Amino acid sequence: MRLHRLATWTLALSLLGASAWAADWPNWRGPSYNGATEAKDLPVRFSRTEGVKWSTPLPGPSAATPIVWGDSIFLSSTDPKAQALLAMALDRKTGEVRWRHAVGSGYRPAGMGEAIRMDNRSDYASPSPTTDGKHVVFFYGNGDTVAFDFAGRKLWSRNLQQEYGDFCFGWTFSSSPLLYDGRLYMQVLQGDMPVAGRGKEGSPSFLLALDPATGRELWKALRPSPAKNESREAFSSPVPYEHNGRKEILLAGSDFLTSHDPATGKELWRWGTWNLNHLHPTLRMVPSPVAGAGMVLACGPKREPVFAVKAGGAGTLGEGGMAWKSDGRGAVTSDVPTPLFYRGRFYVLSDIRKTISCVEPADGKIVWSTPLPGPSMCWGSPTGADGKIYFQSLRGEVHVVDADKGDLLATNPMAEEENELRSTIAVAGDNLFVRTNSRLYCIGK
After folding, report:
1. What global pTM score does this model have?
2. Which of 246, 236, 394, 406 is nearest to 311 (CA)?
3. Nearest-angstrom CA–CA distance, 255 and 208
4. Mean pLDDT rounded to a whole number for the chain
C-alpha cells in the first residue's frame, strides 16, 4: 500500500511538473516556438489600472519579450542613466526584482555609438533572453552573451564580436538566442561589406552552437548567400521545428529560407527567393520563420508576399518546394512582425497594411482579415492563447482579436506618452505579461 501511495504521489508530481512547464514562456515565441500556448481563462479588457495583478517599473526601454519559467521572470533591459545593459530576474507572483546585473564587456568598435544603442530606433537590449529551466541566457546587440543560473550566479560570458569579428549591419543587430535540444543557437546573417565603418569586407554569415553550461563552441556552420548589400542582413531569430520525426533549425534571411541539422549545423535544404535574381539591394529580413502543419512560412520584406514552403525537403528546392505565396498587394504581408501558428492556422500581422489575417496552411486561403484601429502600427509579434490573438501597437495599445472569427474584441491602452513599443506579449498560466518602455505588467482576471 505504501509503494502504491508513493507511486501515485510520484505520478502526481510528474504531471504537476509537466503542467507547470506547459504554463511557461521560455523564449520569445513561447513553449512551442510558434507564438502560441494552450493557456486558458485570459482577460479581454484591461488597462494600466484594470485587471493588473502587479506592475514593476523598469529602468529603461527594450523590445525584448519577458521570459517565464516556474516562479521566475527574466528580461533584458537598458539603463540609460547609467549607460548600462541589464539582465534582470523578477518574482512571477509579485513582480519584485530578485536580481539585477549590469552586463557587458564595454566592447564598442569605432563608430558603434553609445553604450546601449547604435542608432536612434532600437537598442542593444532588443534580443529576448531564453531558458531551459537550468540556464538563462541573455544576448545583446553589441555581441555580449551571458549565462546565469536561476539564483543570478554568472556561469559564463562571451562577446561574439570580439571573437568572430565586428557585426556588419546598418541597424542595431537583434537576433534572439535559442535553447533547444541541449544546445544554445546563435544566428548571425550579416553583410559582407563595411557599413558606416562597421564590419569588414568578406564578413561571413553563420549559425553558431554553444554548450549552454559552459559557453564552449560546439560548431560553427557557414551560411553562404549571393544576396547583395543590405539584403544580406537579417534581424530574425532561429526557430526549431520537428516534422515527420526530423528536427530542424530554420533560418530566414539573406534572400533565403534554410533548414539545418540541430546536431551539426549541416544545411538540410534551402529555398529562395523573394528577391528574384538578388537584384534588390535593401530587402533586409526582420520576421523570423514560423512552422506548422507541415509548412514553413517566410515573410518577404517591404510589401513582398508571404511564402509557404513544404517542410521535410532536401537540397536546393525549386519551384516545387513552394506550396503557395500570398498576394503581396493584399493584407497578407509583414515587414516586421513574425507570424503566429495557432490551432492549425497561420496568423499574419501586417504592420504595413495595419491588418491581421488568418490563413489556411495548405493553400494560403484567407479565412478572415481584420483592419486595426488607430494611427499606430504594430511591430511586436502576435501571441495566440485562449482562443484569442494578443498584440501591442507602437503606442502601447494591446489589441485582442477572436482567433476563429477575426472580431476585434478590445483595444486596451497600456502606455501613457510612450512610443516605439515593440515587445511581444508573453503568456504563462492565466496571466498576460505586457511590457512597455517603463513598466512590466502582469494582467489577469
Report:
1. 0.93
2. 246
3. 19
4. 92
